Structures are given as C-alpha cells and as structure tokens.
Amino acid sequence: MNKELSVIVSSCDKYSHLLPYFTKLFDKYWDCKDRFDKYICVESVDINFPGYKTIHTGDTNWSNSLAKTLSHVDTPYVFIILDDFWPIRHIETGDIERGLKIAKEHNLDKYIFHYPHVVFEGKLDATGIAPNIFKVQQNSEYTMTVQPGLWNVEYLTNILDGENPWEFEISGSARANEKPHKIFMEIISPYHEEAMSRGQFTPSYYNIIQREGL
Q: Which of 149, 105, 145 shows the shortest CA–CA distance to 128?
C-alpha cells in the first residue's frame, strides 16, 4: 500500500444505507483501486465492505467523528469523499498522483477538485502549473469546501471544531482564513452527483441507481 495517502469515506449511521451503493460506484470509478488504504467512518452501525476498513468513532458529530478517524490514519495526506457524493465518472490515477505530487512539492494544506462555481469567481490565482490549477485566495468564502480532495492530515485535524459539513464549510472557512493557508484547486467537470439533500433523496439518487443498475 502507498504510505503517503489514504482514502476516507465520511459516513454516519443515519446515512449508512447509502454505503452499499456508494462502495459499488466508488470501486467502479476509483481507478487507483487498492493502491491506497480505504476507510469508512461511522458511529456504531455494523458494516463490512471488501477492501474497506471500518472505523467506529462512537461520535454523532461529523467533525469529531472525522477527527477520530484521522487518528487511525498513518499517512500524511487523505483523500476525503462524503458518502452521498456518488461517483459518476472515473477518478483517474493520474489525477490523484498529480495532486499528491503538487501537494507535497508546495507543502499544501489542501488540494481540492472542484467544478466551476460562482463563489470562487475572482478568488483564484494562477499557479503556472496548468491552466486549470489555481491557488485559492486567503479570504475566499469557501476555503473549507468539502468537495472531494486531498488534505494534509495535520492541518485538517487542527482545523476541525465540532461542526457538521455545512457549518464547517462556512464557519470553518472563516476560522481557516484567520491564518495563512495554502490551498490549490483543480477545476474539473464533476466527479460526482449528490444523492442526498437536506435529508432527502435527490433526483440524482434515483437516476444513478437506474443508470447503473444498482
């Protein structure tokens, strides 16, 4: 196994019913296959998916649960994806390897894969690495976006503060922006569609199930 990066699927008991579908989709579209250790974090529900290590955190708070999961990881970087972010196209090995290489070379706190979004208009600076790879400006509103990406484990552990993902994106961003950070963003066509919204199944949930024959 590669000792520089691990994969964390962030889940919870309440959303654990998504995991049978998520893992099938991730296994299909994650081109790195078993190159990196893969973890699923939940509070207590009994789950077992081949190729994934289950971490029971015993904590219903998202940030706390994620922090406890990170304490079980022995790699300096993690790729984090939420359980309702269902992959719809291949996440290529080259994308991950390039992102990890850049993260290490530039000592990044985070390397995020993000689709074009209005909240980042005027908030991205060219890096000269590639035309679609940018440095996120210090005062950006959503520096802590939870879109799929690579995180420095030490940085993420220290920035988590007892919030759910949506609070973390907003309050966590304000907190992160108080100190200098180094975040790069690769603008891509989306890797995923969201299967849940405000606790309800989305149209994408039903469309993906039908399209993929799940």
A: 105
